[in-house]
Amino acid sequence: MKIKTLMIAAALLSASYSQAAPRAAKPASAAKAAKPAETARQETAQQEGGIHFSDGIAAVADNEVITRRRLAQAVADTKANLPKGVQISDTALTEQVLMQLVNQSLIVQAGKRRNIQASEAEIAAVAAQNPSLKNLSAEQRRELADSIIAEKVRQQAVMQNSRVSEAEVDRFIEQAQKQGVTLPEGEPMRQYRAQHILIKADSENAAVGAESTIRKIYGEARSGADFSSLARQYSQDASAGNGGDLGWFADGVMVPAFEETVRSLKPGQVSAPVRTQFGWHIIKLNEVREAGTPQERVRNAVRQYIFQQKAERATADLLRDLHSGAYVDIR
């Protein structure tokens, strides 16, 4: 089975940059200036990706060429995996898939500029989830790596812009009650209250220094130093001013490595250093609770709804920013 060209299609489809012009995404003056560079971009993409112009060009996304052959395969993959009952014309599907490919390309290029990488362990872990990917071809390996990089970039944008405060939940519930809107009952979910200290690392070189720093901080925490004070002093996350307090969050909100570490802790414990795409963290779990009362369930449902709205907006903003600074030519 061929790897889907866009593993985060569902997220990007809902936030596709549909306002992008059908030819150049930049303003006319910028597009005109960028046009002479198009040949160089295509030649670079051809050299790096082994693309043959005989494939035909469907689009140019900054420094990458998307061939018609790649588009046709992506359309076939998407069509084969459409939910039952979904009706969409071939023209509309092709347009949507092409925009997804453009979006993914811009995100991956942005990730590579930030030195975000997909490790062999990450590629192997994703491949292991699909029995048909036991023997990866070079193309499949590249597609998997690009998908992992794209998801890391998207998760960074989401996690940096999607935190939900208790005050926001209060305002939402109050507004709903004023308008006579019935709030969902919600499902019981395990929730965690934790603090963390983050030392950012946006490249492999930076990660070495960040790991050294976080291990020193971890040593101070294990020696009895107050975690909140350490967070205020060292953390490079927006939560530093609150002593690294992340408030209450449920499963499925944090990035996988962070969430797995939180689940492994008991209240009061501080984790060993853990790396995510944001950098190196140490985490202190303070409380665990089941959102079991009717009020807690409602608040959790509202919190998840607000988070999802913010996550979609963060993804759309990411794409808008990338399109505004890129040359995009849809053929």
From TrEMBL:
GO molecular function terms noted in the UniProt entry: peptidyl-prolyl cis-trans isomerase activity
Entry-linked SUPFAM superfamilies: FKBP-like, Triger factor/SurA peptide-binding domain-like
Keyword match Signal: yes
Biased composition regions of type Low complexity, renumbered to the chain: 28-37
Signal peptide start-end: 1-20
Region feature (Disordered): 28-48
Pfam families attached to this UniProt entry: Rotamase (PF00639)
InterPro entries named among the record's database cross-references: OMP_Chaperone_SurA (IPR050280), PPIase_dom_sf (IPR046357), PPIase_PpiC (IPR000297), PPIase_PpiC_CS (IPR023058), Trigger_fact/SurA_dom_sf (IPR027304)
UniProt KW keywords: Isomerase, Rotamase, Signal
All residue ranges annotated as the PpiC domain in the record: 189-287
Ranges in coiled-coil conformation: none
PANTHER family, A to Z: CHAPERONE SURA
Protein name: Peptidylprolyl isomerase
Lineage: Bacteria, Pseudomonadati, Pseudomonadota, Betaproteobacteria, Neisseriales
